[in-house]
Every structure is written in structure tokens, then in C-alpha cells.
Design a protein that fits this description.
The protein is α+β, with helices and mostly antiparallel strands. Among the domains are: 58 residues; 40 residues. The protein is built from 4 helices and 4 strands. It has a 4-stranded antiparallel sheet with strand order 1-2-3-4, with no helix packed on it.
């Protein structure tokens, strides 16, 4: 009951304050857009700066990155594989599992050259198909 008695007074007070609040709280659109734009540019600059720093830091690992070369990898199962790695002029055959890496054999002479790609039957057939589609006759000699 007491609340019902004060209701008309509250509504009149809100009506009188209403327009004053709207005028005072109207945002400046240009200033808001400018602030948002500057913030966006700052975030983009930080992202590019971090990318630049990461790129510069990746070269500081030290040592010769060509000391160890993975010559070939052959999967033996879903998580197991055999890899031929060249280290110091010697090729090492290793077995890689999720829990261990083991040396299977050390070759004194290189079995496969690290620079030469290992060609397979599929690679030869693909090269033959590409050669035929481009009309070169050099690939057709291999099939006969």
C-alpha cells in the first residue's frame, strides 16, 4: 500500500530526469570509432611484432642445422616407423616408437644419397602420366 502511494511521485521524478540523462549520456560516435580503430591497430601491431620476434628467434638455435638429415622414413604401423638418418657422413637405421628410439644398424657407406629422392613405382607411373598429358615423348620410352 505504501508503495502504491509513492508510485506517482516516482514516475514524475523519472520523467523529469529522463531527458537530462539521454543528453548527457549520448556518446560521441567519431571519438568512439577513433578509439576503437586505434585499439585495433595496436592489437594488429602487437601480433605482427610477436611474429617478427618469433621469426628472428628461430635462427638463434645455434649449431649447424645440416648436421643431421632424415634421408627416408617408412611407417611400420600406426605409431611405429623406421627412419634412415645421416649423421657425420654415416647413415644410421633407427626404429622409432612412441616410447623409445633404437639404433637398428649403422652403415659405414651411404646406402641412399640424401640429396637424391627415392623414386618408387608410383612416382615413375605418375611422371609417365604427367609426361603423356603434356605430350612429351621422353616418358613414353620408359614404359616399353
Amino acid at each position: 500500500m505504501l508503495l502504491a502511494a509513492f508510485m506517482p511521485a516516482l514516475t514524475r521524478a523519472q520523467e523529469q530526469e529522463g531527458p537530462a540523462r539521454e543528453v548527457a549520456s549520448a556518446p560521441d560516435t567519431v571519438a568512439t570509432m577513433l578509439t576503437l580503430g586505434v585499439g585495433l591497430l595496436a592489437v594488429i601491431a602487437i601480433i605482427f611484432g610477436c611474429a617478427w620476434i618469433v621469426r628472428r628467434m628461430s635462427g638463434m638455435t645455434g649449431g649447424n642445422t645440416r648436421a643431421i638429415k632424415v634421408v627416408s622414413v617408412m611407417p611400420m604401423g600406426t605409431r611405429e616407423r623406421i627412419a634412415l638418418v645421416e649423421v657425420g657422413g654415416k647413415q644410421i637405421l633407427i626404429g622409432v616408437t612412441p616410447s623409445a628410439i633404437r639404433t637398428l644398424h649403422v652403415f659405414d657407406e651411404p646406402v641412399v644419397s640424401a640429396g637424391d629422392p627415392v623414386s618408387s613405382d608410383f612416382a615413375r607411373k605418375l611422371q609417365g602420366m604427367i609426361g603423356k598429358s603434356w605430350g612429351s615423348g621422353s616418358s613414353s620410352k620408359e614404359g616399353s
